[in-house]
Amino acid sequence: MNEMDQERSATADVMAQALEEAHKREMGTMPSQAPKPENPIRMSVEHLDLYYGDHQALKDVSIDIRDREITSFIGPSGCGKSTLLRCLNRMNDMVKDCRIEGKITLDGDDIYQDYNVTRLRQQVGMVFQRPNPFPMSIFDNVAYGPRGLGIKNHAELEEIVEESLTGAGLWDEVKDKLKQSGLGLSGGQQQRLCIARAIAVKPQVLLMDEPTSALDPISTVMVEQLAMELKKDYTLVVVTHNMQQASRISDSVAFFLLGELVEHAPTEELFSAPKDSRTSDYLTGRFG
């Protein structure tokens, strides 16, 4: 079997496994598990209001993000889910006339009070909607962050690059072409390269803003599988318009509407028995 056939076989196996697990969840045939204890809170949002000039984009939002879980934000376009995501590593600081009231903590420390923003963005990484590899080699893409943190030893950088690409499920596909440009990879590979770049600086939290919306179905399945693997070591917050995706990968789901957090609950509970009629209307397609 040649290299291309091996890649296709591995991809087919991953996709088949993911589709089988998704089907079992949807049919309610996954093996029953005893309730697990709640993970500790990694980030907490308390009574957050956000304004763009005179427009209020977020209204009294409070939510706890638990460690080593996937929390998904869902809701119609313009509901505030991506706006809140960008608050979690202060990317809204760069938006003109943006004003924030309330509190966001990481491990109990208020990230808007005497908190080094560079350190925050190392601890809370971001993967964007469209893959955005830097115009440099695959190796240099992943080594970019560690170098910025002062790591210069090449052997140490090699170890970080291999570990990060392995963690992103990409090492076997690129280990023989690390000097080639990251821009030459496929869309799905580029997104996994961006994930490798993000985890290379050892964040505690990984934010993903619609990470599969620009990908083909096979790449989408691979990134979803990767997200579920990554939660063993990281806390993930994912914005998605795809409710099936939220139901497949999430431990809990938060539904937003018109800048308000309507409901946040464990995934199965929110999809099977939402407490708010607006959540039910959205999930059944009455709007959005």
Write out key terms for the chains shown.
single chain, 288 residues, alpha/beta, Rossmann fold, 23% strand
Overall description:
Helix 8 links the parallel strand 7 (205-209) and strand 8 (235-239). The chain is globular, with a radius of gyration of 19 Å. It is of the alpha/beta class. The longest helix has 25 residues, at 3-27. It has a single domain (37-283), classed as P-loop containing nucleotide triphosphate hydrolases (Rossmann fold, 3-Layer(aba) Sandwich), CATH 3.40.50. It contains 11 helices and 10 strands.
Query: Could you say what the CATH architecture is?
Result: 3-Layer(aba) Sandwich
Strand percentage: 15-25%
Structural class computed from helices and strand pairing: alpha/beta
The CATH C-level name is Alpha Beta
* Number of helices, counting only DSSP H or I runs of 4 residues or more: 11
Mean pLDDT: 90
The residue fraction in helices comes out at 25-40%
Compressed to H and E, one letter per element, the order equals HEEEHEEHEHHHHEHEHEEHH
Overall outline: globular
- Major sheet: arrangement of strands: 6-7-8-3-9-10
Reported by name, the CATH topology is Rossmann fold
CATH superfamily: P-loop containing nucleotide triphosphate hydrolases
- What does the oligomeric state look like here? single chain
